[in-house]
Design goal:
about 200 residues; Rossmann fold; six-stranded parallel sheet; alpha/beta
Length: about 200
C-alpha cells in the first residue's frame, strides 16, 4: 500500500510542478537557443518503425523551421556498437533539411537524468527546450528545475494503442525511480570535457 501511495504521489508532484511548462502549439512556445531531443530507438524489437522516434523527429523539425530553436542537442544511448540513438536522429534530421552544423550529439544520455544533467554540466545549458512526448517532457523538466535549469517542453505527438499504454505504465515507475535518484543524489554515468554549442 505504501509503495502504491509513493507511486501516486510521485506522479502527482511531477504533473503539478510542470503544469504550464509544456506546449503543443509551436506558435506559442517561447524561443530557446537549444532544443534538447531525448533519444529513443529508431525501430522496435520486432523491426517496425518506432513512432516515438518519428514523432520526436517531426517535432524537432517543426520547432527549428519556426525559428523557436537555433541549435539541436540530441541525447541518447550509444552503449552498444550497433545501437546509436543520437546518430539515427541526426541522420533523419539532416534528411529533413536541418543543417548538420546546427546539430550536436550527446552519446552518454543513457537515461533522462543523464541527458538533462549533462546538458548543463557538459554542454553549459542553463535554459533549454526539451523535445519528447508530454509525459516524458514533464519528468525531464522536473529534473531540469531541480538542477537549476530553466526548461520548457515541446510535446511531440503521442502514441496510442497497446504499445502506448505499456509505455505510459512504465512512466509511472520511471517517475517513482526519479524521486529515489533525487533523494540519493544520483549522478550521470559519465560527464567529460565541456562542449560549447553555437
Amino acid at each position: 500500500m505504501l509503495v502504491l501511495l509513493f507511486v501516486i504521489t510521485a506522479n502527482f508532484i511531477i504533473s503539478k510542478n510542470t503544469h504550464n511548462s509544456t506546449y503543443n502549439d509551436r506558435d506559442k512556445i517561447p524561443h530557446n537557443k537549444v532544443g534538447l531531443v531525448l533519444g529513443t530507438g529508431q525501430y522496435l524489437v520486432d523491426g517496425r518503425p518506432n513512432l516515438y522516434f518519428i514523432y520526436r523527429v517531426n517535432a524537432t523539425v517543426e520547432l527549428f523551421q519556426k525559428g523557436k530553436i537555433d541549435f539541436i542537442l540530441i541525447s541518447g544511448d550509444n552503449s552498444k556498437k550497433d545501437y546509436n540513438e543520437p546518430e539515427a536522429f541526426k541522420t533523419e534530421l539532416i534528411r529533413k533539411g536541418i543543417p548538420k552544423e546546427k546539430i550536436f550529439l550527446d552519446f552518454a544520455g543513457f537515461r533522462t537524468l543523464d541527458s538533462v544533467i549533462r546538458a548543463k554540466k557538459v554542454f553549459g545549458l542553463t535554459a533549454v527546450t526539451i523535445i519528447s512526448q508530454q509525459f516524458h517532457n514533464e519528468r525531464a523538466i522536473y529534473i531540469a528545475k531541480h538542477n537549476g535549469i530553466s526548461a520548457i517542453g515541446y510535446n511531440a505527438k503521442d502514441v496510442g494503442g497497446r504499445f502506448g499504454l505499456k509505455v505510459k505504465l512504465r512512466e509511472y515507475l520511471a517517475r517513482t525511480k526519479m524521486f529515489l535518484d533525487i533523494l540519493f543524489n544520483v549522478k550521470p554515468k559519465y560527464l567529460g570535457k565541456k562542449i560549447t554549442i553555437g
